[in-house]
Amino acid sequence: MDEVFTGNFTQQEPIPEAAIEAAVAVLRTGRLHRYNTVSGEAGEAALLEEEFAAAMGAKYCLSVASGGYALGCALRALDLAPGAPVLTNAFTLAPVPGAIAATGARPVFVEVTEDLVIDLDHLDRIAGETGAKVLMLSHMRGHLCDMDRLLEIAARHDLRVIEDCAHTMGASWAGRLSGRDGVIGCYSTQTYKHMNSGEGGLIVTDDPGLMARMILLSGSYMLFTRHRAAPGPEYFEGLKYDTPNVSGRMDNLRAAILRPQIPTLGDRIARWNALYMRVEAGLVATPGLRLIPRPQAEAYVGSSFQFLLPGRSAEEIADVVSRCAVRGVELKWFGAAEPAGFTSRYDSWRYAPGPRLMQTDRVLSGLLDLRLPLTFSLEDADQIARIIDAEARR
């Protein structure tokens, strides 16, 4: 009888006890709003920003309501003209083009390669053709492109890079942490990301003018002096009366949940990567299945796993997905005719029309994806790989 996996692909680890205790302490005060502090008290949100900035090696940090809000806030801080083109990966999730469109800018999609990263040749060409001055680079599903070459292209076209690091908190390229190569780095703390507060976002930058604008945009009510990982008051003086309030602050409750998770990020990354490597080892010999190579310069966070079934028909791939589901393994397929859950793609976003991207269509047609929650054991990873291997061979 075929083995069946009984684990839950959406069950995350419990919130750490230290975070629960910190959250209860905030609840007992009743002061959840980030600016509702007593004299001499920093507040959990301000302390989170200070500690996360230090962990990422950034001068400034702002905590906000979600990763999607972080992206929109970063774009607004760049003061884009209405209809301005903003380049982004064709392989990303809906909050990325959604943030671009919501600011009044125009998403322009760039092809993805079989390694699931932005096509740098296409980026170079389309940056020149469109005259775009902003690239929102999505490190989708934790895959980092050649960041050295990307920065060369960005410099040549005078592109300001916003890094969407929702899937790469703690990852690095050539020793440089993800989010630190662009002018702004944005992170998510939604439940399925690398720190968990249900919803939440973090923004880092070394640019004092941009951070001042983002703090004002997030809804500081002229209380910007209460921010610790922030530039001095002089940077706010010329901005404070002309920057709209687009409220999206993080509250002290979520900040309290997140602060104890920062020191343990490295341990979680090591555990995710152990799971990732066990699944990879179990599929390396599967005929007709293409694994995604990891460049030597990339230190990744393997919280999800992707592979390709190139050359198979839609019916054949749908059959593999269905058979794996019967055996308890939940695969997300980016080539289905209709988006399901988190599998929407560039042609699903009708508010962002553009030309067909034949290379991206070919890649996504065979792309399969699964989560690797830390509630799984190494033996679970082995079993998942055995089931996928068996069904891909049929």
Description of the structure:
It is a single chain. This protein folds into 2 domains: 17-261, Type I PLP-dependent aspartate aminotransferase-like (Major domain) (Aspartate Aminotransferase, domain 2), CATH 3.40.640.10; 265-393, Alpha-Beta Complex (Aspartate Aminotransferase, domain 1). Helix content is 37%, strand content 14%. The protein has 13 helices and 14 strands. The chain has helices at 17-29, 44-56, 67-77, 95-102, 120-130, 147-157, 208-217, 234-237, 252-258, 265-283, 314-326, 358-365, 378-393, and strands spanning 60-64, 85-89, 106-110, 134-138, 160-164, 172-173, 176-177, 184-188, 201-205, 290-291, 298-299, 304-308, 332-333, 367-371. The strands form 3 sheets. The protein has a 7-stranded mixed sheet, with helices on both faces. Helix 1 runs antiparallel to helix 9 (252-258), helix 3 packs parallel to helix 4 (95-102) and helix 3 crosses helix 7 (208-217). The longest helix has 19 residues, at 265-283. The protein is globular, with a radius of gyration of 21 Å. The mean pLDDT is 97.
Question: Brief description of this entry?
Answer:
The protein is of the alpha/beta class and 394 residues long. The protein contains 13 helices and 14 strands. It has helices spanning 17-29, 44-56, 67-77, 95-102, 120-130, 147-157, 208-217, 234-237, 252-258, 265-283, 314-326, 358-365, 378-393, and strands spanning 60-64, 85-89, 106-110, 134-138, 160-164, 172-173, 176-177, 184-188, 201-205, 290-291, 298-299, 304-308, 332-333, 367-371.
